[in-house]
């Protein structure tokens, strides 16, 4: 029986906080919050809008959109764009975008996304802006950063963070793992000649780590990433791992001191019960708390990808856990 079966959520969280982080992560995985409405989603990015309510964007459609007034009931709200910008077709025949990331700065919402084809690193990250953040209001500004088959990285799965007055974008999938470049805050695009920093990888090919997201808490930056394989329904093996660093560009290590460049990473969330292959994660602030958004494959619904939401709390030893 899990701790959830014998203790209240609060009591279980308090007990888990006393355990070593690696033991705590392996002990128990909370179920996602109950939600209603349109639950189907993949690679969610969520933000609490200044106008009230929430929007989630995702892989699927022309960046699929969901709206919610309360964060509990979600409604299908079409797509970010009415049609794909013409340049997307340079990277796949259907103009299909992946893995968006939404943020707010300088009076605008910024939506980053990737365009690529399965199994290739001929890829690009693009950006669009909106004053409201709502679907149908986005203006595309073209390419931010690209990769080609001659590169050792893959320009997909973007995620932004501001640190020290500078703007950074982590990205990456397979092809030696997670990378980072500095962006120009004025344009939102990679600085000319920007160094490509290396944040995380696996010891062996195919280097199955992707979907980075970095959060600052206290004096540390925390790198969350999806390890193993997505997109296979009930056969998906995605799981979310985390490491931390005092510098946004790394080096990131787990609670044992193992570098994420050497295959390290504390296990934060793995499949359990009907909730298979959680990953494609991002983090958003909601009512003063951090919330982890991700997709999982529902084993009770044929492996359909659905939205998972869990509150992140921070233990006394400075590591994230979920409730």
Oligomer: single chain
* Level-1 CATH class name: Mainly Beta
Strand order of the largest sheet: 1-5-4-3-2
CATH structural architecture: 5 Propeller
* CATH superfamily annotation: Glycosyl hydrolase domain, family 43
CATH topology: Tachylectin-2, Chain A
Unreliable segments of 5+ consecutive residues: 1-27
How many structural domains can be distinguished in the coordinates?
1
Description:
- This protein has one domain: Glycosyl hydrolase domain, family 43 (Tachylectin-2, Chain A).
- It is globular.
- 47% of the residues are buried.
- The strands form 5 sheets. The chain has a 5-stranded mixed sheet with strand order 1-5-4-3-2, with no helix packed on it. It has a 4-stranded antiparallel sheet with strand order 6-7-8-9, with no helix packed on it. Strands 10-11-12-13 form a 4-stranded antiparallel sheet, with no helix packed on it.
- Helices cover 5% and strands 44% of the residues.
- The protein has 2 helices and 21 strands.
- The N terminus is likely disordered.
- With 323 residues, the chain is mostly beta strands.
- The two termini are 17 Å apart.
